[in-house]
Recover the amino acids of this structure.
């Protein structure tokens, strides 16, 4: 095995493995190093994939319990949690092995071990990466280009120790052995609401503590408010503008002390399990960045230019460990763009058209600017909206909560943002993302033929509503 490569990718998550595959496709020699033991990173091992498997299974369970009767189906439903977890683990196993296969297929050497940069690439000589494998065996690699794709880790809650049994991060929350009677979620962001939904559907009483006065910061406020109303109707309890100040482990469970975010009277909430979901931090521990002089910003993110170059020539960073949304497809697109740039092509990511989806029920899917952002930037815009209550397909599947909202430039009609809360919102959004990528107007969407009866017609009707000619309301 050669130890010299065109590029070494550190991290085998969506950023790293896609960069390595693209490098291989473009004829460059590459190694992809990950210390986890399986490839696919946070996303495949402990993030997107296991959480979506549980969201799907718990949604079916809940549906069978509560909604089948409305459709004229009588069923007796029983939870088999170990089998649900085993199905999730099977999916993860298949997909992580699939990534290894794809790396091999594209002639990338997949190396398991912890990588550390010991020398930066400099004129004429390659950069050096030392990999500590199983049992501490060291292997020295050299390359012209070093790509850091080491991702992110759980942001800690001060003075709270995560044990992944009673006080869990998302990693523990996707592997609980039994359904907690009372689950306390700290943070009303994506993880808190997705995993809170899983356990709520399986029978937990779920209380969500959020520091801010709203849930899902960053999402269009109108959507966010509707989202909270729907989740509250499902039984999720919200305490906004509240902070956790301490946790005590008792024989009977956890006693969690909370107080108003602005300070004030303390109260105690009892819970069996507490999920800490207050964000993620870039992960660059033990990489040797200080030794080679790679600069980090105040939040610990690797500083890069818009071609992913760090301040040290030959070293690049992509994905969660640099700035931007911490999303798998953002990391993936950066990996592809960087591989193309290294191969002398014109790699590029359009950051105005990166979608985000919360996979609760209903789903929340958004791309582009929110109304709040457009107002703050002083951009004149028009709004088109359409509720799922008026969509025929939504009625036939008995799922009419939510709406589609399209924001278009008041002068040019170019689509600036699309925000959907409703059934299949994540899939529906793809049309708006493509429209934005092509610089389409709302009229382009409104005049595109959509199949009937589909949920996609709600997107078309919202686009028609921008110019006030919605036809199905
Ligand atoms: P990562 O996937 O974090 O991969 C980095 C890899 O680098 C890790 O495997 C790590 O072992 C390895 N590594 C680190 N240091 C070293 C070293 N020194 N040597 C060798 N290897 C090293 N995003 C979505 O888009 N959709 C979702 O539905 C979604 N759901 C999520 C659910 C949960 C519960 C979580 C936690 C995250 C979710 N995300 C989701 C976010 C998504 O997982 C991340 O944005 C994505 O994984 C980032 O990819 P990455 O390649 O930058 O890093
Ligand atoms: P988040 O940033 O989405 O939400 C964190 C929430 O915690 C915010 O509402 C914040 O105001 C709140 N918070 C912060 N400190 C707090 C405190 N001390 N007390 C109470 N509340 C506090 O972070 P989350 O949910 O941990 O997810 C991390 C990242 O993982 C996401 O930002 C996203 O990038 C990614 N992710 C994406 C998913 C998807 O695409 N479907 C699913 C899960 C995670």
């Amino acid at each position: 095995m050669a130890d010299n490569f065109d590029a070494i990718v550190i991290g085998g998550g969506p950023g790293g493995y896609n960069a390595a595959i693209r490098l291989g496709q473009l004829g460059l020699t590459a190694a992809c190093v990950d210390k986890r033991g399986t490839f696919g990173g946070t996303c495949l091992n402990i993030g997107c994939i296991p959480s979506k498997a549980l969201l799907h299974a718990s949604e079916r369970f809940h549906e069978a319990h509560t909604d089948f009767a409305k459709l004229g189906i009588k069923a007796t439903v029983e939870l088999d949690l170990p089998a649900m977890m085993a199905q999730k683990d099977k999916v993860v196993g298949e997909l992580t092995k699939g990534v290894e296969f794809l790396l091999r297929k594209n002639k990338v050497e997949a190396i398991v071990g912890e990588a550390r940069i010991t020398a930066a690439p400099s004129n004429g000589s390659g950069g050096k990466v030392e990999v500590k494998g199983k049992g501490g065996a060291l292997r020295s690699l050299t390359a012209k280009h070093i790509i850091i794709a080491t991702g992110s880790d759980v942001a800690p809650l001060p003075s709270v120790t995560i044990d992944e049994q009673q006080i869990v991060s998302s990693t523990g929350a996707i592997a609980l052995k039994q359904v907690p009677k009372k689950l306390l979620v700290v943070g009303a962001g994506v993880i808190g609401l997705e995993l809170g939904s899983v356990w709520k559907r399986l029978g937990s009483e779920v209380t969500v503590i959020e520091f801010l006065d709203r849930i899902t910061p960053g999402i269009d406020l109108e959507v966010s408010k509707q989202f909270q109303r729907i989740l509250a109707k499902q039984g999720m309890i919200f305490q906004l503008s509240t902070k956790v100040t301490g946790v005590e482990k008792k024989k009977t469970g956890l006693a969690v002390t909370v107080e108003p975010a602005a300070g004030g009277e303390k109260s105690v909430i009892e819970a069996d399990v507490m999920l800490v979901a207050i964000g993620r931090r870039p992960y660059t521990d033990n990489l040797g960045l200080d030794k080679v002089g790679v600069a980090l910003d105040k939040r610990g993110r690797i500083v890069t230019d818009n071609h992913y170059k760090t301040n040290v020539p030959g070293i690049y960073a992509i994905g969660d460990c640099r700035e931007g949304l911490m999303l798998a497809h953002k990391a993936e697109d950066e990996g592809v763009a960087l591989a193309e740039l290294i191969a002398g092509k014109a790699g590029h990511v359009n950051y105005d058209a990166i979608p985000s989806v919360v996979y609760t029920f209903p789903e929340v899917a958004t791309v582009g600017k929110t109304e709040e952002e457009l107002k703050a930037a002083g951009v004149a815009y028009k709004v088109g909206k359409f509720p799922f209550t008026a969509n025929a397909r939504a009625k036939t599947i008995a799922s009419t909560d939510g709406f589609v909202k399209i924001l278009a430039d008041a002068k040019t009609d170019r689509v600036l943002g699309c925000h959907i809360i409703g059934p299949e919102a994540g899939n529906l959004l793809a049309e708006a993302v493509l429209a934005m990528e092509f610089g389409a107007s709302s009229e382009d969407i409104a005049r595109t033929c959509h199949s009937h009866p589909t949920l996609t017609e709600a997107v078309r009707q919202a686009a028609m509503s921008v110019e006030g000619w919605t036809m199905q309301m």
Observations:
- The first strand starts at residue 4 and ends at 10.
